[in-house]
Amino acid sequence: MLIKIARGWEIPESLVTPEDIFLNRRNFIAGAGSIAAVGALPEFAFAAGEADPSADLYPAKRNPKYKIPLELTPEKVNLTYNNFYEFGSHKKISEAAQALPIRPWEVVFDGDVEKPFKLGIDELIRKMTLQERLYRHRCVEAWSMTIPWSGFPMKDLVALAKPLSKAKYVRMETFKNPSVARGQKAAWYPWPYVEGLTIEEATNELAFMVTGAYGKPMAKQFGAPLRLAVPWKYGFKHIKSIVRFTFTDKQPKSFWEQIQAREYGFWANVNPKVSHPRWSQATERVLGTSIRVPTLLFNGYGEYVADMYKGMEDKQSTWM
């Protein structure tokens, strides 16, 4: 007899939102009423002035391996509560983010690779097989959400880049365009936004390059046209609107690490036992509700990622 032990972040398939309901927007919103009352979705959720050339690729087929122990956060909630400092330091940046032009959009691959190159975003997306994954997301500010991301494994992007054996890290960089992103006019921030992962982290099966959400191309406030999802790490590691991947033997210094390394370190792995210097990380507020739930080690994904940090468990820097 085969006994399957569910992972800490999994639930039985019977409890996951059925695909036919999820893909029907009206039914999905109605079903989400137990979390938060939602109204009509904003127009920018579906169109922002131009047709998305990748729209025919969505909805991507859901990968049933990746489940979540909570209901999906309603789309309206996620669309109107966003961190995107390029457009402001508050959460209501969704309208301002619509100014970002996402076509044409080129992505550069350089550093320690066989041959540096660049690709247009649509060429890059169509080289990959898209899938949908249900992921938890934990912000360092002690709130969380659950979201159906569409995209492809980051390990496929690493394979496309063909890094040299001496490459130990991937440095990622977002756009810099202060003419449309007014937050980038703030000279006290080290623009452009930079983040980094080790090659081992980047090729872990959970590391995911996101191109869509909620069954359609990704909204601009989520970080269109290309962002990162690493669900065992705090949200500031999930860099948005990426334009460059640089493979290097040197550990990158990330955006928030440059600003305040004591509070926002390179690793940023979720751990309820290690507090932020200014608040506890033991619990989190579920976005769209007043509910607080216990925070899980590695955001509940420890079975997939804990081995990468063996011997580092007692180091404060591993968690912040």
Secondary-structure blueprint of this entry?
Elements: H1 19-23, H2 25-31, H3 75-79, H4 94-97, E1 106-111, E2 117-120, H5 121-127, E3 131-138, E4 143-153, H6 154-161, E5 169-174, E6 194-198, H7 199-202, E7 208-213, E8 216-217, E9 227-229, E10 242-248, H8 255-260, E11 283-286, E12 292-294, H9 302-305
Which term fits the overall shape? globular
Please indicate the percent range of residues in DSSP E strands (runs of 2 or more). 15-25%
Number of domains: 1
SS content category: alpha+beta
CA-atom Rg in angstroms? 19 Å
Largest sheet: 7 strands, mixed
Could you characterize the architecture of this molecule?
It is a single chain. The chain has 320 residues and is an alpha+beta fold. The chain has one domain: Oxidoreductase, molybdopterin-binding domain (Sulfite Oxidase, Chain A, domain 2), CATH 3.90.420. 16% of the residues lie in helices and 20% in strands. It contains 9 helices and 12 strands. It has helices spanning 19-23, 25-31, 75-79, 94-97, 121-127, 154-161, 199-202, 255-260, 302-305, and strands at residues 106-111, 117-120, 131-138, 143-153, 169-174, 194-198, 208-213, 216-217, 227-229, 242-248, 283-286, 292-294. The strands form 2 sheets. Strands 3, 4, 7, 8, 9, 11 and 12 form a 7-stranded mixed sheet that branches. Strand 1 (106-111) and strand 2 (117-120) form a beta hairpin. The protein is globular. The model is unreliable at 1-6 and 8-48 (pLDDT under 50).
